[in-house]
Amino acid sequence: MTLILNKNDVVSVLDMKDCMNVVENAFKELANGTAVLPLRTNIKPPDGLSLYMPAYIKEMKALACKVVTVYKDNPKNHNLPVVIGKVLLQDPDTGDVICIMDGGYLTAVRTGAASGVATKYLAREDKNQIAGIFGTGVQARMQLWAVQVARDISKAYVYDISDEAADKFIEEMSKKLNLEIIKADSPEEVLKADIICTATSSATPIFDGKQVKAGTHINGIGSHTPNARELDTEIIKRSKFIGDSKEACFSEAGDIMIPLKEGAITESHFYAELGEIITGKIKGRINNKEITLFKSNGLAIQDVATAKLIYDKAIEAGIGVEVNI
User: Which of 107, 226, 295, 325 has the smallest count of CB within 10 Å of its CB?
Assistant: First the structure.
């Protein structure tokens, strides 16, 4: 039998704190060599893009593949979202697909969770810190949620080019997190924050890296192609640069690829992978003055770890529909 979990099922069992725990363990296994992470495979049909993201995490006993499609004409032609995702979770002992679940909310939470884990290991440990969020979409919401789980946050600033979007973000997230959230009038106001998350669709830098204060931690989330970046060359140069994957950063992340191409940095500027920090193979933050930066590209191990968590919780809660395929 195969368990089917729709979006509501996934939302009902997936919590950020639990997701951060399994994502942390997934990065740990990747660093220790007990996770298998093949390169993402892309297929381009005439009207869209299809991505296949498999992984196996041995100690977690998690095996799965996420299928994500991007079809820009879906809304007007088929009344469907531009991006659609499903995860096929397998029994690693038999190979059978034991669960098919919606991947949209899963992807959003696991991306936030990676930033939460990075914040846990790289941000200063002071009390009453300030969070700064660029962007107001789904991922911006997840970033703020994860940062609040990882650190003692007293308030947050949010900036978006749309006042309406910022107001809606504040209304929703201040209630969800019981947190004071202030609408920033400019990008510079967000730079007052101790922990900054960039979760926008901008292809060009969104703030002046010279104005970032010492001791700041940054999670870079939004840009994910070689020619796009949210972070300028100056802040890359000033930061201790940690990525989810070195290979992914140098093949997908314009934030580091563009400064490298400019000759502003060398490949040695990449300090460590997040898993190396988690396992203690490489030391993270050394003092409260340095600027740390985590670049997230999104790895299948995050999806697989989260899918296993969702499945286990769904079985425990007795939700979903079982079908005989």
Answer: 325
